[in-house]
Design brief:
Elements: H1 2-19, H2 25-44, H3 49-82, H4 89-119, E1 122-130, E2 138-143, H5 154-167, E3 171-174, H6 183-188, H7 191-199, E4 205-208, H8 212-219, H9 224-230, E5 234-235, E6 239-243, E7 246-250, H10 254-260, H11 267-270, E8 275-288, E9 295-305, E10 310-313, E11 331-334, H12 345-352, E12 358-362, E13 365-369, E14 387-395, H13 397-406
Helix pairs in contact: 1-2, 1-3, 2-3, 3-4, 5-7, 8-10
Length: 407
């Protein structure tokens, strides 16, 4: 976080220096300061339509402008220390205006294309083979990073609801980052009824975890986890639930844990039980009930081994703690990265995360990282896709066939 803030500060300084160079003296400084003031105003009003529009423009324009401003600034610095005379103020102003115009034009083109592209999400299909010790497969729809805000397209969610109702998965799995507006505003906009329809599409259960934006919303007095429970999700917060024939573990997001000033539990503490106690009546043994004139049969318990797939949901794809020993999850799901969302972040995201997108392995576990159903900040995608995943978990047929032949 400190490194990110440092990079952001350097970027804002470069923006101020270059934007203020488009005009002479105090006029240029006023223009540069005005740009920064509008940017911070948009962040402060993030939950409003005006604030969302401001954030959309600046979030797209800022990284693209830095692509132009960084080399130009380095050239000016190098020229200053290697040449006997400075660049003329007139040339600096002319180049500054060109760079500002080009970067703004690129930003508007990205926004025009990227908003339309974001509204169309992809449906990806994935088949995951489970070990032959399990008896039955199951299906799931996984999605992450909805980020409901004033610019969110509710019709996109309605299409998703209809699709889930058509697919009829056993489980609906949500990977965190629900909204960037208060839950009361979501109720007023009718999102509570929409999400109830969505969770009703799962035949067994709809399971959700928190993401880092749940921590941000909790700081403003909201309770997004309780809201998700209200609309039908089973919310797992560093906890495990065995629903039907599958066990799910949902991790508390790292940012949520820090905001609560708590540590995440070791994964070993959250592993599902592999045994189950089965109650039965004991033979030829009775117990006299002291409070009643009756004789009740004694109760005995049998210990039975239980083999159930274990699915892990963790918003940020950081893998499993190195100190973990014991059973590993059969599959893990994450979101958070957005696959960079738009250029140029899509170019550097693979250098930030070991597994930034798609199917891979982390800490010896087969892992899937989704780019998300929608976007944070600008509803813009350039170089990435909004998506859902339809996953079919099936038991290895070859191994089971060999086992049957042996018997």
């Amino acid at each position: 976080m400190i490194a990110f803030l440092f990079v952001l500060l350097i970027g804002l300084v470069l923006v101020y220096v270059n934007v203020s160079s488009v005009a002479k003296g105090k006029t240029g400084k006023i223009i540069g300061a005005a740009v920064l003031i509008v940017l911070f105003l948009g962040m402060f009003l993030r939950s409003t339509l005006v604030g969302s529009c401001i954030v959309t423009f600046f979030a797209v324009w800022l990284p693209n402008s830095l692509i132009l401003y960084i080399p130009w600034t380095l050239y000016r610095i190098g020229y200053h220390f290697t040449q006997p005379h400075h660049l003329s103020h007139r040339l600096v102003r002319r180049v500054g205006r060109y760079l500002l115009g080009i970067s703004m034009a690129v930003a508007f083109m990205f926004i025009g294309y990227g908003m339309q592209h974001n509204d169309e999400y992809k449906m990806n299909l994935l088949t995951v083979e489970l070990a032959d010790r399990y008896t039955e497969g199951f299906s799931a729809v996984f999605f992450s990073d909805i980020h409901v805000d004033p610019l969110f397209n509710a019709q996109k969610l309605e299409r998703f609801i209809a699709q889930v109702d058509s697919i009829k998965p056993d489980y609906l799995l949500f990977g965190g980052d629900l909204a960037d507006i208060p839950t009361g505003v979501m109720d007023s906009a009718g999102y509570d009824s929409l999400f109830k329809k969505l969770t009703a599409g799962a035949k067994v259960a709809a399971v959700a975890i928190n993401g880092n934006h749940e921590a941000f919303m909790a700081r403003s007095g909201n309770n997004p986890e309780e809201w998700m429970r209200k609309v039908g999700f089973v919310v797992l917060d560093d906890s495990t639930a065995c629903l039907g024939g599958v066990c799910f573990t949902g991790r508390t997001d790292f940012t949520v844990a820090r905001s609560r000033d708590t540590e995440r539990k070791p994964l070993a503490e959250l592993a599902p039980d592999t045994v189950q106690l089965i109650e039965r009546a004991a033979d030829s043994v009775t117990v006299q009930d002291s409070l009643a004139d009756s004789v009740a049969p004694a109760v005995a318990y049998d210990t039975v081994a239980v083999q159930r797939p274990w699915i892990l949901l963790d918003h940020q794809p950081k893998g499993i703690e190195k100190a973990h020993t014991g059973r590993l999850p059969d599959f893990a799901l994450s979101g958070h990265t957005h696959d960079g969302q738009f250029f140029p972040v899509t170019f550097i995201i693979d250098y930030v995360w070991k597994l930034a997108y798609g199917k891979g392995a982390l800490s010896g576990v087969l892992w899937l990282v989704s780019s998300g159903f929608d976007c944070w900040g600008p509803p813009v995608r350039v170089g990435s896709d909004s998506e859902i995943w339809v996953i079919k978990f099936k038991v290895k047929e070859a191994d089971r066939t060999q086992q049957s032949d042996a018997e």
